[in-house]
Design goal:
Elements lengths: L3 H13 L2 H8 L3 H15 L4 E4 L2 E4 L1 H28 L5 E6 L4 H15 L4 E6 L4 H6 L5 E7 L10 E16 L8 E2 L8 E3 L5 H12 L8 E2 L3 H9 L4 E5 L10 E7 L4 E9 L6 H17 L3
Parallel strand pairs: 3-4, 3-5, 7-11, 8-9, 8-10
Antiparallel strand pairs: 1-2, 5-12, 6-10, 6-11, 6-12
Helix pairs in contact: 1-2, 1-3, 1-4, 2-3, 5-9
Length: 300
């Protein structure tokens, strides 16, 4: 009989591209992963992986087995959710992946509420802006607080259920006293010294495309994904920043914010979990807490 843990390792290696990367994500040694995959190869009697430069790739047999493994892993997940639903109680652990820009306004209030309503639940929070939905599909996290910019394509993977939380516009941030609070047309920023995220990030790409549609090429002087650094540059008058509303403390001194007029840049914040036929009480509780915190955060 095939071991589901070994099937999960095969899926992880296929997604990560190497045994070392898979081992790191699974908190195991590369030797332990190699040993389990060797045992899986012995179980099926055929090679499942082949060298591919500095990485590994699935053989034809490995690809066939992976397709079945994904269905098996999903079925086990369904079974776990069904049993949890019968118990009707929130579990003891959950893992949440969240964007750094959502921690203050949404994540912290949500975790505080969960601690009050479900004291037995320990939520491990992974704060990252990298590939959260992939971590969800691999089972590395249970819930993702993610984003999608409205004018960029939807890249939600198959098997992921998304619950919209709120629309979060980018605001123009300058030093207090440098500008008024009237809406700013995006084309006006063509003459500003800008601080923006790298174009490799979702926010950076959204800003780049929006400026292009507004008729000018983005040429920022400061490039950083660190929102605290962007706010410092704006506060000191060195740059104008474009920052999501939820990432800005409305009581922070020394800055002024204004909405973008005409062509706003807006991201949808969402809570995502793996799709199951039966709702899991634990992930349902985490998503509900995020939704409540997001709704309350609108009044900041």
């Amino acid at each position: 009989m095939l071991d589901i843990r070994r099937l999960h390792m095969l899926k992880t290696v296929a997604a990560r591209g190497s045994i070392a990367a898979a081992a790191q994500s699974l908190a195991l040694s590369p030797g332990a992963v190699s040993q389990q995959l060797s045992a899986l190869r012995h179980d099926v009697g055929v090679d499942l992986l082949r060298p591919d430069g500095r990485t590994v790739a699935l053989t034809e047999a490995g690809q066939v087995l992976l397709e079945h493994a994904e269905r098996i892993i999903a079925a086990v997940g369904e079974a776990e959710c069904a049993v949890a639903a019968v118990k009707g109680t929130v579990g003891a652990t959950a893992t949440l992946a969240a964007l750094p820009s959502t921690v203050a306004a949404i994540v912290a209030p949500a975790l505080t509420a969960l601690g009050s309503h479900h004291p037995q639940l320990t939520v491990t929070c992974l704060v990252t802006d990298q590939a959260q939905l992939r971590e969800l599909t691999l089972g590395a996290v249970d819930v993702v607080l993610g984003q999608r910019y409205h004018h960029l394509p939807d890249a939600t993977p198959r098997g992921v259920e998304v619950s919209a939380l709120l629309d979060d516009p980018l605001l123009v941030v300058t030093a207090a006293g440098q500008a008024d609070e009237r809406p700013v047309a995006l084309r006006e920023l063509a003459t500003h010294t800008l601080a923006v995220p790298p174009p490799t990030t979702e926010c950076g790409q959204a800003i780049l495309q929006a400026c292009h549609h507004a008729g000018f090429a983005l040429a920022p002087r400061y490039i950083t994904a660190d929102i605290a650094a962007q706010l410092t540059l704006a506060r000191t008058g060195l740059a104008t920043a474009l920052i999501p509303r939820t990432a800005i403390d409305p009581t922070a001194p020394g800055i002024r914010t204004a909405p973008i007029e005409g062509q706003p840049i807006t991201r949808l914040l969402f809570a995502a979990s793996r799709h199951t036929q039966t709702a899991n009480p634990t992930t349902t509780a985490v998503v509900a807490a995020l939704r409540t915190a997001a709704r309350q955060g609108l009044g900041r």
